[in-house]
Backbone:
């Protein structure tokens, strides 16, 4: 079931703990901001007015506020973006006050927290090994003291999540992004999925399974599997954007030349060559109909 019909691209949707609301990033009024809508569909409601929201990171445990990553106060653009919260009802935003970070996850049955810094999706920055690779920091006691783990990890660790007593994250050690996990102190490192060819992206964690995106499909993974099972999803749609469309040449013409006797005009429109009389008859296309681009028409 389709939920939205918007003017802009909608990104990083996140379902509230109660299952009633969806938070997402949209640019309906120019800049990327936090919006929400009912999970069963409905109008988008804008919650922030900061001007540079990067992604939704999650919800508070009680579902009353949305955590997001924003670069509106950053000095170095997206490089030192920070985490903020905004109420589901809107109003002023609040800084999480943990410095530059892109991800934060809390232990479900305890006080532990895991923080991701420089954790740009490695599917976007494939096989990056430079100084801005991802960092994972853990506050095991919840007292505010974070320690970095996996500092010598050879891949690019991103998207850390505290789940079932372990830290799960994405890494491309084997040149393809896969799901990995370790203990909160960085020990017992293991590769959970062994996908090849296409990166594992945007994992979402449930009670006993993980849903992730890979090669345009959603996959369901459970502990012990090497490859997630592709979920069969049917989304009825008229596929409007792949149907034939007609573009008005008057808005797309590039060059023109008037016939020396003044009775015709030659045009290049969207890279195609055409001519037509000024007051009667139809337009004629010249040259190859497809596969070539023409410019600067001229009568000789």
Residues:
């Amino acid at each position: 079931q389709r939920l939205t019909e918007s003017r802009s691209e909608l990104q990083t949707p996140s379902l509230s703990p109660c299952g009633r609301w969806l938070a997402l990033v949209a640019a309906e009024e120019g800049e990327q901001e936090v919006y929400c809508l009912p999970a069963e569909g409905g109008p988008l409601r804008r919650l922030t007015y900061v001007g540079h929201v990067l992604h939704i990171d999650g919800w508070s445990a009680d579902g009353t506020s949305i955590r997001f990553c924003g670069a509106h106060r950053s000095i170095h653009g997206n490089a030192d973006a920070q985490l903020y919260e905004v109420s589901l009802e809107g109003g002023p935003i609040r800084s999480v006050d943990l410095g530059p970070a892109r991800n934060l996850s809390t232990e479900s049955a305890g006080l532990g927290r895991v923080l991701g810094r420089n954790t740009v999706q490695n599917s976007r920055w494939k096989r990056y090994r430079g100084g801005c690779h991802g960092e994972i920091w853990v506050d095991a006691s919840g007292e505010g003291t974070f320690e970095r783990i996996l500092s010598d990890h050879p891949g690019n660790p991103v998207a850390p999540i505290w789940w079932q007593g372990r830290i799960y994250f994405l890494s491309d050690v084997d040149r393809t992004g896969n799901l990995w996990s370790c203990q909160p102190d960085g020990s017992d490192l293991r590769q959970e999925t062994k996908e090849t060819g296409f990166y594992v992206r945007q994992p979402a964690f449930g009670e006993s399974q993980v849903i992730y995106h890979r090669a345009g499909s959603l996959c369901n993974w459970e502990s012990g599997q090497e490859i997630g099972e592709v979920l069969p999803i049917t989304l009825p749609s008229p596929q409007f954007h792949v149907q034939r469309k007609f573009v008005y040449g008057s808005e797309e013409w590039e060059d023109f030349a008037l016939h020396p006797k003044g009775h015709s005009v030659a045009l290049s429109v969207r890279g195609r060559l055409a001519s037509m009389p000024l007051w009667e008859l139809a337009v004629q296309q010249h040259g190859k109909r497809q596969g070539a681009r023409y410019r600067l028409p001229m009568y000789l």
User: Anything to note?
Assistant: The radius of gyration is 26 Å. The chain is about 0% helix and 40% strand. The chain has a mean pLDDT of 93. Residues 246-286 form one domain.
